[in-house]
Amino acid sequence: MFLVLLSYLAFFSIALPDSMLGVAWPSMRLSFGQSLGAAGLIPPFGVAATIVSTLLTRHVVARLGIGRLLAVSTVLSAVGLVISAASPTMAVFLVSVVMLGFSGGAIDVTLNAYAARSFGPRRINLMHASYVIGAAASPALVTLFLQVGVSWRVPYLVIAGLQLLLAGVFAVGARRWQEAEGRRRVHPWTENVDQRPEWRRKTQPRTAHASPDTDPARNRRPRMKIAAVVGIAAVVVQTGIESSVALWAYSFLTLGAGIGAGIAGLAVSGFWLMMFLSRVVLGSLAEGLGSRTIMGAGAIGLLVAAVLTAVGTTWPAAAVASVLVFGLAAGPMYPLLILTTRDRTTATGLDRLVAAQAASSAVGAATLPLLFGFAMSASPSAFAPIMLGAAVGALVLHLVLRGGSFRS
Q: Pfam families given for it (predicted)?
């Protein structure tokens, strides 16, 4: 249970810097002399760092172990936040974004691979709910400082200090990870199927007379490859939606729907709060109702939220409601996509597909917000039609995953 709690705390830590930019950017851009739409140019730098981090993490974990990787990555995050706060130009700030991408990517892929093997729907949702707590806390902190007239740089320094404290906790707990790995005699990245509990085994033993043409495992491989590709696409769209709401909802509410800065800041925090509640509640319900049922409800909810954004350009209350509904609907989607990775691949390919999905989530978190940046530079109201298209795409991908029988 101690390692489960450390996993939750680690996801809390990587969320803190991730969600600050959306609220800080309108003030930050003035310091850097940038346009509003320039915020869309920032995520690709973090994405590139995250992808490189995902590719290297497997080797780094093999050398350091999970516990030390958590500690080192959190220290790197703290250093990146200090550089963010001290940045005199946009170029220097982008350096800090790259550092934060390296840090968050390493923690994300390592713990998601661990959770996909070891957790059920409730625990993996609680782990991602811990991310939401951090993601809700930091925008509220930035909003508080800005409302009292303090520079956007100060909350970055405050979060950097908190990251250093968390790094100390991870360093102390590193030995527990080592002990757990020693007891298992196998690392989560290279775990052999036969060493897992019986109920988690997915192997189907061959008979002595099995041939390549009648081997069920061989025959389902093409379908599983298709499922893996569709699952990656679903992750891209899902994380793109979440990141776009986190980054652009504040600007949409204030500039596109005419809502005051204070209420808009609270609405962004409300987005993360609703996501937290849905992961806690719906994640638990998924234990009994099944992951597919909860994911279906979430996909429909995303479409409802997107419709509300269109109404919100003339009815401000609907705009605020749309941000909250996005949080409620999106909450369990990404954790359950990670959990159901084992339905779309073999046991030996699980870690590689989780890493591919982690990289694709970073791509989605950059590409869709970038599209929003270009569109919202012309009109803040463009948030509504682009979000509607993304929500339709998410629903279609879910229906493809649900309709296909990818497991035999």
A: MFS_1
Place of tokens 């915020």: 39
Four-residue CA torsion sign, 352, 358, 362, 367: positive
CB atoms within 10 A of CB 325: 22
pLDDT digits (tens, 9 = 90+) for 89-109: 999 999 999 999 999 888 888
Query: Which residue segment(s) compose the domain that 348 sits in?
Result: 2-192+220-403
pTM: 0.74
Cβ-in-10-Å burial (0-12, 13-18, 19+) of 279 comes to: buried
CATH label of the domain that carries residue 374: 1.20.1250.20
Residue 203 neighbours by CB distance under 10 Å: 12
At 148, list the tokens. Answer: 């009292």
**Number of structural domains the chain divides into:** 1
CB contact at 8 A, 365 and 140: no
Nearest to 370 by CA among 390, 347, 400: 390
Spatial distance between the Cα atoms of 345 and 99, rounded to a whole number of angstroms: 32
Are 104 and 57 within 8 A, CB to CB? no
Q: Residue 181: what pLDDT? A: 61
- Owner of token pair 């069920």: 216
Confidence of residue 201 (pLDDT cuts 50, 70, 90): very low
Q: Model confidence over 112-121: pLDDT tens digits? A: 887 887 788 8
Asked if pLDDT for residue 183 goes beyond 60, the answer is no
Per the domain annotation, does 106 fall within a domain? yes
Does residue 208 form part of some domain?
no
Which token pair is 221?
A: 């491989």
Q: Decide: helix, strand or coil at residue 379.
A: coil
- Which tokens belong to 228? 């893996």
In a domain, 376, yes or no: yes
Please choose, from the candidates 131, 138, 132, the residue with its C-alpha nearest in 3D space to the C-alpha of residue 157. 138
Q: Does some domain include residue 197?
A: no
Query: Can you list the alpha helix ranges (DSSP code H) found in 204-343?
Result: 216-219, 221-251, 261-289, 291-312, 316-330, 333-339
